[in-house]
């Protein structure tokens, strides 16, 4: 049974708020990461969750480096 797709707008808004990053930037990063993961995936159930986690971690790492 496949996992339901997360609501992308809510996901982008959540990551944007958590990382103090413009939603447009988060949306682009998420779309790019999701496309990359889907290109290489054999099982797609958790791809959106992995993409969101990667974007969130990248933005947090970038934020920490600026401080």
Descriptive key words:
67 residues, mainly alpha, DUF3562 domain-containing protein, DUF3562
What is the topology?
Blueprint: H1 8-19, H2 23-40, H3 47-66
Helix pairs in contact: 1-2, 1-3, 2-3
InterPro entries: DUF3562 (IPR021945)
Pfam families: DUF3562
Protein name: DUF3562 domain-containing protein
In short:
InterPro entries: DUF3562. The protein has helices at residues 8-19, 23-40, 47-66.
Walkthrough of the structure:
- The chain is mainly alpha-helical.
- The protein has one domain (8-66).
- It has three helices and no strands.
- It has helices at residues 8-19, 23-40, 47-66.
- α1 crosses α2 (23-40), α1 runs parallel beside α3 (47-66) and α2 (23-40) packs across α3.
- The N and C termini lie far apart (43 Å).
- The mean pLDDT is 90.
Mean pLDDT rating: 90
Largest sheet: none
Please give the radius of gyration in angstroms. Answer: 12 Å
N-end to C-end Cα span: 43 Å
Number of helices: 3
Approximate strand percentage = under 5%
Structural domain count: 1
Helix content: over 70%
Secondary-structure element series: HHH
Outline type = globular
Unreliable segments (pLDDT under 50, ≥5 consecutive)? none
- Write down how many β-strands occur, each being a DSSP E stretch of 2 or more residues: 0
Structural category is: mainly alpha
